Amino acid sequence: MYSPYLTVAAVIAGAMLLQAASGLLLVLLPLRMTAEGFSVQSMGWVAAAHGAGFLAGCVITSRMVSAIGHVRAFAALAAALSAIALSFATFDSPLAWFALRLAGGVSFAGLYAVAESWIAECTPRTLRGRVLGFYTVCTRVALVIAPLSLGWFALEGPWAFMLISALCSLALLPVTTTRSASPATTVQRALNIGRLYRLTPVGLLGCFSVGLINAPLLSLVPVYGGVIGLDVDTIVVLFPVLQLGSLVLQWPLGRWSDRVDRRRIICGQCVAVAVLSLPLALLDTPQLWLLLPLLFLLGGAALSIYAICVAHAGDHASSDQMVSLLSGLLLAWGVGAAIGPAAAAAVMDRVGAGGLFMYISVVALAFALYVVHRMWARLPAPIDEHVRFVDVPPTSAAAAELSVNERAAGSRVRE
What we know:
This protein is an all-alpha fold.
């Protein structure tokens, strides 16, 4: 019997290996930078470089794919990323690591775009929503599990970077050996920013705010753990706990948003992020009984906002706008992800480790107030005309191709 999952299993396997490498880098780099004596501000700029590189990759890699095709583009970017991972073990200056993280962001953006467009091409339109859900769960499981392996390696050696390089190289195998046909090359165009704001102000500013919040949360929480006195074996657990919270709570929150005005869910999540961040900002000793549950809930609230903002935007867009809409929202997220880590690190430099969560609390609360303003200013789409919630990851505009058919049912009400 034909199975769409078997058709794209090789590509999903490659994406899982890449997400595992990404998760390892997100945890390993702050730990190594702390061991090397980098300042918190330097760590913030290195983390911001990934967001800036990812943003650039979203813009430029489509041209690369159009010029040389998906297989060659994936092979070139995976090889480059493998070399970049090894280079981190060679250089020890903040400037060099900034450049490497920037290049790595470009490579990751291109690789996700290739993998997701491949899945979209090989999946029937009627099954794309469920395949997207399967893909998202698989890649998040990789993000949860991979950082735990850092406890096997000494931080001062090159072995952890060698593992990351190996994962990037291994990601080539399933993609380059799959028997599925290479997808057609397309170039996605984002909506004009002014038109996108008029169409969905909460969706656009929500994705931007999510970048401001989640990028520093994921990249600087290991620094926070080190400053409050956690050992390395405990620090490597913090990132998986955040991701596990998202994995568990994303679908219940998304399904709930199908039944009410999504802006209420978005506002409630932002308030929850602001409230949960306050005790973390005040915590200056390693009290795991409090820290881990708070991070689990914070991850569930913060890391789930992007997909609900996308679903809210989809309520006000026609099916033929969805690909360009998601492309624009992804770019807004990328701008926030490029700014957030440097801004959060500046606050940490001034007030200490708790500054990370003070920053997150302020940004989340500010956006919650904006959502309340928009709820007063504009009626929502009728509940019976909501599109079905689909958990779209902030990885590439190609993810829109996977979800667009799920969002095609029912009429949509514009602003």
